[in-house]
């Protein structure tokens, strides 16, 4: 499989018009672009009608304190009420909210009425643990219904949650729990993964050694494996939650009340606590979920095949779909357990109509072969989506043909943790999609491509992707670090949001995403920081210096390649040191951050000002002749590295 150069993608000329039937019945028509253009604020005010407000807002947007936005000023609402209670009150209690499918094939249908009872129980349990409005709760959980219940219970109480992806290490939990000032953690004994139980609680236990502020750890029994127990601190979910009343009268909070914090990697070693608030976020996710997926809540069976531990799961497994009273699939396992057709079997079983997943998964399915999905009945599908990284035309075409049966529109959706909601995407009933392009900003969203000097480029030009007007689900700040918020997103081009992505506009004015322009990597749709991995490597006693680059990879988008200079004392460690270092990174951050290769080098290429020239290392990692090295302080370094690598083979 040959990965085309990203910059060549926009030579693609194929287009796929919306299926006529879908276009005729689409939730949004081309008129929406015109309406939003004419009165953008009024357009968002209208979208806010999708949400139930306990008190109406008096102003749609207050941008007077930019870059801090306030949306739906004065409005009061409860996110959990909007996701669950109001649907039950409207007579939809019997509708399935989730078809939960466990890895081992066990399954459970959870209706909106069931969900309401469970969320109320969990909220009552958190109250018993002393959780109050404004307190932060960390959630480190497998992909199980209790995870959604825990999030909604927090939202119901106005206690912002911070969900930590269950692949992260103790160190990562500790950093997030401390940064966010968490006092209560919700976790499970373990998760089912690849046919085996894998432990979660020991990872939390280890983190807790350095988190004295955490008073209580609430533990769901998922796998039944042996766990260590701290009687003072630990409580079983089934002991505490199950005995609670299934009703709870919720309070309503200000539109700008914090809903959650999601940590994401930036260009420095320290993850950023991206803060989302309630009103704008709920409007943004419900609108985009309805518009981009053309959701028909009474007919569709919707599946986001992602983990709730990432923003995709927050917005399009939990808040967006539930706000829209959707029936969703929630799947606990990996795509190849117990067989490589597992996803297609699930689509067949539940007659899934809309699938949303990442290009890295699609490329993996391509590698496994089209004969696998061909064995299943995928005729229920009517729309398929992609998110997390640029989708190369080859993967797009494979997805369209083998999963979408050349019938379903593909929506390639661009957005980020910070955005909270999809910003750039085709509208399935309007846009003729092009393989590899996210097409245009959604109605209500205004984005542009800027050149180095901050001038919008013309059609055919390339540069930096910026969002030029605020949008409702935008992050409000970084938890505890507002200066970093302003510097990271609003200083590169004053007054507009800098995404950190490169993009190109084609001759039609459609957007083509070109990947990150900063030190952020995208590995299998997971965002990782080169600096964060470098810090992890350097924290090992054997390492004197480290440089990390993301190299193009046909399957995972990018792969992590590390170059290290060892300390004198560690020389001669060979293979052993490399293994130790990979494990050390897993320990510091999580297994997803393990470098694919670690090359021991005598020196690193640096400019006269001491900046590592990662571009040259990237050339080596991607097995190219290194480019121009004339600005190096010591130009012999590259020869030395290459001689060294040749010698090591
Ligand atoms: C970065 C954000 C938002 C969901 C998952 C990732 C890349 C995301 C696309 C797309 C090209 C994409 C960007 C972005 N990205 N979607 N459709 N086409 N690139 O969230 O971890 O915050 O990562 O993912 O580089 O900056 P995230």
Automatic annotation (TrEMBL):
<keyword id="KW-0067">ATP-binding</keyword>
<feature type="domain" description="AMP-binding enzyme C-terminal">
    <location>
        <begin position="532"/>
        <end position="611"/>
    </location>
</feature>
<dbReference type="GO" id="GO:0005829">
    <property type="term" value="C:cytosol"/>
</dbReference>
<dbReference type="InterPro" id="IPR000873">
    <property type="entry name" value="AMP-dep_synth/lig_dom"/>
</dbReference>
<feature type="domain" description="Acetyl-coenzyme A synthetase N-terminal">
    <location>
        <begin position="31"/>
        <end position="83"/>
    </location>
</feature>
<dbReference type="GO" id="GO:0003987">
    <property type="term" value="F:acetate-CoA ligase activity"/>
</dbReference>
<feature type="domain" description="AMP-dependent synthetase/ligase">
    <location>
        <begin position="91"/>
        <end position="471"/>
    </location>
</feature>
<dbReference type="Pfam" id="PF00501">
    <property type="entry name" value="AMP-binding"/>
</dbReference>
<dbReference type="InterPro" id="IPR045851">
    <property type="entry name" value="AMP-bd_C_sf"/>
</dbReference>
<dbReference type="InterPro" id="IPR025110">
    <property type="entry name" value="AMP-bd_C"/>
</dbReference>
<dbReference type="InterPro" id="IPR020845">
    <property type="entry name" value="AMP-binding_CS"/>
</dbReference>
<dbReference type="Pfam" id="PF16177">
    <property type="entry name" value="ACAS_N"/>
</dbReference>
<dbReference type="InterPro" id="IPR042099">
    <property type="entry name" value="ANL_N_sf"/>
</dbReference>
<keyword id="KW-0547">Nucleotide-binding</keyword>
<dbReference type="GO" id="GO:0005524">
    <property type="term" value="F:ATP binding"/>
</dbReference>
<dbReference type="GO" id="GO:0016208">
    <property type="term" value="F:AMP binding"/>
</dbReference>
<dbReference type="InterPro" id="IPR011904">
    <property type="entry name" value="Ac_CoA_lig"/>
</dbReference>
<dbReference type="Pfam" id="PF13193">
    <property type="entry name" value="AMP-binding_C"/>
</dbReference>
<dbReference type="GO" id="GO:0019427">
    <property type="term" value="P:acetyl-CoA biosynthetic process from acetate"/>
</dbReference>
<dbReference type="InterPro" id="IPR032387">
    <property type="entry name" value="ACAS_N"/>
</dbReference>
<comment type="similarity">
    <text>Belongs to the ATP-dependent AMP-binding enzyme family.</text>
</comment>
<protein>
    <recommendedName>
        <fullName>Acetate--CoA ligase</fullName>
        <ecNumber>6.2.1.1</ecNumber>
    </recommendedName>
</protein>
<keyword id="KW-0436">Ligase</keyword>
<keyword id="KW-0007">Acetylation</keyword>
């Amino acid at each position: 499989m040959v990965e085309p150069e990203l910059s060549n993608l926009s030579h693609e000329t194929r287009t796929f018009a919306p299926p006529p039937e879908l276009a005729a019945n689409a939730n949004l028509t081309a008129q929406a672009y015109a309406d939003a253009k004419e009165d953008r604020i009024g357009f968002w005010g209208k979208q806010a009608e999708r949400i139930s407000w306990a008190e109406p807002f008096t102003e749609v947007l207050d941008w007077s304190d930019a870059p801090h936005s306030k949306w739906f000023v004065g409005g009061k609402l409860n996110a959990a009420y909007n996701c669950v209670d109001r649907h039950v009150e409207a007579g939809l209690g019997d509708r399935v909210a989730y078809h939960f499918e466990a890895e081992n094939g066990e399954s459970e249908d959870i209706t909106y009425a069931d969900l309401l009872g469970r969320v109320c129980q969990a909220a009552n349990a958190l109250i018993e643990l002393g959780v109050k409005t404004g307190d932060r709760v960390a959630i480190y959980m497998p992909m199980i219904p209790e995870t959604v219940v825990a999030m909604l219970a927090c939202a119901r109480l106005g206690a912002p949650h911070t969900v930590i992806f269950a692949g992260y290490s103790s160190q990562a939990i500790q950093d997030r729990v401390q940064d966010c000032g968490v006092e209560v953690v919700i976790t499970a004994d373990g998760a089912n993964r690849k046919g085996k139980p894998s432990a979660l609680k020991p990872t939390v236990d280890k983190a807790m050694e350095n988190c004295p502020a955490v008073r209580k750890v609430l533990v769901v029994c998922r796998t039944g494996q042996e766990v260590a127990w701290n009687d003072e601190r630990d409580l079983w979910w089934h002991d505490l939650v199950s005995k609670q009343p299934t009703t709870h009268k919720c309070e309503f909070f200000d539109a700008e009340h914090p809903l959650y914090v999601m940590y994401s990697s930036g260009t420095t070693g320290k993850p950023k606590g991206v803060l989302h608030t309630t009103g704008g976020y709920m409007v943004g996710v419900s609108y985009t979920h309805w518009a981009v997926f053309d959701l028909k809540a009474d007919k569709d069976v919707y599946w986001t095949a992602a983990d709730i531990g990432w923003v995709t799961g927050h917005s399009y497994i939990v808040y967006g779909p539930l706000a829209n009273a959707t029936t969703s699939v929630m799947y606990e396992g990996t795509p190849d357990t117990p067989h490589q057709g597992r996803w297609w079997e699930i689509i067949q079983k539940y007659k899934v109509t809309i699938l949303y997943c990442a290009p890295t998964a699609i490329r993996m399915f391509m590698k496994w072969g089209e004969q696998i999905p061909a064995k299943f009945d995928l005729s229920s599908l009517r729309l398929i989506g992609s998110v997390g990284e640029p989708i190369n035309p080859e993967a797009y075409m494979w997805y369209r043909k083998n999963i979408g049966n050349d019938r379903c529109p593909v929506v390639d959706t661009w957005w980020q943790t910070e955005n909270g909601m999809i910003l750039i995407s085709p509208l399935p009933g309007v846009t003729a999609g092009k393989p590899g392009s996210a097409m245009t900003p959604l109605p209500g969203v205004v984005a542009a491509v800027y050149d180095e000097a901050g001038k919008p480029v013309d059609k055919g030009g390339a540069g930096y992707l910026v969002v030029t007007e605020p949008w409702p689900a935008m992050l409000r700040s970084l938890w505890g670090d507002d200066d970093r918020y302003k510097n990271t997103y609003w200083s590169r081009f004053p007054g507009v949001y800098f995404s950190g992505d490169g993009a190109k506009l084609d001759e039609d004015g459609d957007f083509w995403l070109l990947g990150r322009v900063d030190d952020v990597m995208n590995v299998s749709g997971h965002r990782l920081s080169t600096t964060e991995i470098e810090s992890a490597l350097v924290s090992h006693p054997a390492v004197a210096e480290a440089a990390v680059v993301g190299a193009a990879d046909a399957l995972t988008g990018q792969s992590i390649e590390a170059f290290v200079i060892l300390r004198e004392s560690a020389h001669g460690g060979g293979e052993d040191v490399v293994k130790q270092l990979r494990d050390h990174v897993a320990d510091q951050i999580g297994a997803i951050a393990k470098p694919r290769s670690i090359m021991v080098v005598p020196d690193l290429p640096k400019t006269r000002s001491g900046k590592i020239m990662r571009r040259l290392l990237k050339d080596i990692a991607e097995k190219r002749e290194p480019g121009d090295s004339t600005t190096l302080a010591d130009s012999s370094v590259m020869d030395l590295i290459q001689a060294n690598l040749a010698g090591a083979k």
